[in-house]
Amino acid sequence: MNYIVFDLEWNQSNEKFNRDLGLPFEILEIGAVKLNKKLKVVDKFEVVIKPQIYHYINYITTKIVHMTKEELENGKPFPIAMNEFLEWCGKDYILCIWGTSDITELQRNMMYYGMDMLADGPLLYYDIQKFFSLAYEDGKKRRALETAVDYLGIEKDNPFHRAYDDAYYTAKVFQRVNSYKPKTKRYVSYDVFIAPRSRKDEIEVNFKTYSKYISREFPDKMVAIEDPRVSETKCYECKRAAPQRIKWFSVNGKHYFCVAYCKKHGYLKGKIRMKKTDDGNFYVVKTLKLVSREQAQEIALKQDKLRLQRSEKRRAKKEN
Predict the structure, then answer these.
(1) H or E segment at 128?
(2) Which residue from 108, 190, 216, 271 puts its CA 20 to 30 A from 49's CA?
(3) Please, what is the angle between helix 145-152 and helix 163-180, to 10°?
(4) Pairwise CA distance, residues 264 & 245, whole Å
């Protein structure tokens, strides 16, 4: 098995109301480094793509990406470039990126041109930005690639903000992280450009410090939150049901919280993020994490504050 560490550069419309909603970001360049199972560099890939949708480079893109008009005019159509990239990747590989956006936009561009998707549902990948945070920080902070390169003392022998160069540096960071804390590879990520098709395709995975569940699609939020599998809480340490001390509640309609309790392992903080698909449906990303009693009390205070705010709004509405 190989690791394909890749990066994209893309463009968007210069005008807010002159945007192709099917393709808000058009890929201009793909760059990649292929690492073998020992994380040794075995090959590289780079291709420039000729724009078909947005022919004028957005002013933000020009500040970051240093590509000439001649380069783009001599680029390849996206379907040809993408097929070359997939052939180069081979059959047995894991995609690795810095952050979370590139795989989503890669698949969005593939769908726009009627190409087969990379997977029929959520796609497992490695987020090297997350790995860096897990290895050297608190696992929550997300640093810029150049910041990580500087922190690790990696020699900057290439410029940043070209697809291959950023893939090259991402691969360097991946090698350092793996050498320092190889177990970070356990913390895989899933791109959900395509949500699970059915219940049997749903994702449920336990990590060392939390569990993650990705649901199939639902027609609306209420149907989703009332689904038994969505709303259930289980301890990821002992796999037993953990009764809820604080039922699921929402602060903003997008994020839901709860507190459950496992007799053996203690309090669990539950968090649900409602995600909207391109066709208007919803799917759920649920995480459960063991927390202290004090952290559980913070969620209770958040619920109390929300109840008070809603009560005051109702009172004000009656008075008016």
Answers:
(1) helix 128-136
(2) 190
(3) 50
(4) 15
Element of type H or E holding 108: helix 101-112
Residue 272, by phi and psi: left (phi above 0), alpha (psi -120 to 50) or beta?
A: beta
Quote the pTM value.
Answer: 0.89
In the chain, ranges of CATH 3.30.420.10 domains: 2-186
- For residue 269, which of 251, 292, 253 has the smallest C-alpha distance? 292
* pLDDT tens column, 96-152: 999 999 999 999 999 999 999 999 999 999 999 999 999 999 999 999 999 999 999
Among residues 123, 168, 125, 160, the alpha carbon closest in space to that of 32 is found at 168
Token digits for 48? 């420039």
Identity at 292, one-letter amino acid code: S
Q: CA–CA distance from 129 to each of 44, 103, 158 (Å)?
A: 20, 14, 19
pLDDT single digits (tens) 44-91 = 999 999 999 887 766 555 555 667 788 888 999 999 999 999 999 999
Residue 283, SS3 per DSSP: strand
Q: What's the CATH number for 2-186?
A: 3.30.420.10
SS3 for 61-81 is HHHHCCCCHHHHHCCECHHHH
Give Cα separations from 166 to 64, 128, 136, 171, 250 (angstroms). 12, 12, 20, 9, 39
Decide: 32 and 5 in contact? Cβ < 8 Å. Answer: yes
Eight-state DSSP code of residue 241: B
Contact 96, 125 (CB under 8 A): yes
Best CA proximity match to 155, nearest among 173, 179, 141: 173
Query: Is the Cβ–Cβ distance between 247 and 258 less than 8 Å?
Result: yes
Phi, psi of 220 (to 5 degrees): -155, 175
CB 289 within 8 A of CB 234: no
- The total of other beta-carbon atoms located within 10 Å of residue 213's CB is 19
How many Å apart are CA 43 and CA 93, to the nearest integer?
A: 13
Q: Which of 11, 32, 12 is nearest to 82 (CA)?
A: 32
